[in-house]
Design a protein that fits this description.
The chain is an all-alpha fold. The chain has eight helices and no strands. The chain has one domain: Phosphate transport system protein phou homolog 2, domain 2 (Methane Monooxygenase Hydroxylase, Chain G, domain 1, Up-down Bundle), CATH 1.20.58.220.
């Protein structure tokens, strides 16, 4: 039924949505080399990676504007317009926070305390898990929305979204643990460094939070479909 309606009223926006999801995840993937470069104290290369991040975030913005233009021209969409926009906005904030993280790393030449290297990469890996699960759910949602809502396919995506919440919960726990490690360095580490580490932790946490929120709107789209 949804496919028939889409055929009558024009192509769906879901291909563009997945393009946006993939570009946003590219921003998240760049966090790993950014962190590696910081740990290796290669501050010139850090600036180059920041420029790459800015370009990726800009490309994500262009896709977002194309989607907004597309859905504003359609008098009919197979899903609720406001829910789709809310999904898009939360996904956009993932890229924004990834870029903010890269900005933080370029603000000063900070030498990361060796005790924090592995915990930061473990936390970063968990944030990847959250973002990657959202991307998988978005791709599967496109296939579902362009065919027919409901059935086992819908239940499978809802399971992905439930998993997304569980992965974000793990990231939240790791965030608190890492913050405790950071503040335990008081007296051994410069206070500015401690504040710098905490800003990094908060931005990574925001990426995971926004991915979970985007997943919540995917759930709403499916349940209304």
């Amino acid at each position: 039924m949804h496919k028939l309606i889409t055929d009558l009223f024009g192509k769906s926006p879901f291909g563009l949505i997945v393009e946006h999801s993939k570009k946003v995840h590219e921003c998240v993937e760049l966090l790993w080399p950014l962190m590696e470069t910081l740990v290796n104290e290669d501050f010139d290369h850090l600036k180059a990676l920041h420029s790459k991040m800015a370009r990726l975030e800009y490309e994500a913005d262009l896709i977002k504007l194309e989607i907004r233009s597309f859905i504003s021209r359609r008098s009919f969409l197979p899903v609720d317009r406001s829910d789709l926009i809310n999904f898009l906005e939360h996904q956009e904030k993932i890229a924004d926070n990834a870029q903010d993280f890269s900005v933080i790393l370029t603000l000063r030449k900070t030498v990361v305390h060796p005790d924090l290297h592995d915990p930061f990469f473990e936390y970063l890996n968990q944030v990847f898990q959250v973002s990657g699960t959202l991307l998988t759910a978005a791709v599967e949602f496109k296939n579902l929305a362009e065919a027919a809502f409901g059935g086992e396919e819908a239940r499978q995506i809802l399971r992905f979204i439930q998993g997304l919440g569980e992965e974000e919960w793990k990231a939240d726990k790791m965030s608190r643990k890492l913050s405790r490690m950071v503040f335990a360095l008081e007296g051994k580490e410069e206070i500015l460094n401690i504040l710098f580490y905490e800003k990094m932790i908060v931005k990574l946490g925001e990426i995971a939070n926004q991915a979970e929120s985007a997943g919540d709107y995917l759930r709403v789209l499916i349940e209304k479909g």
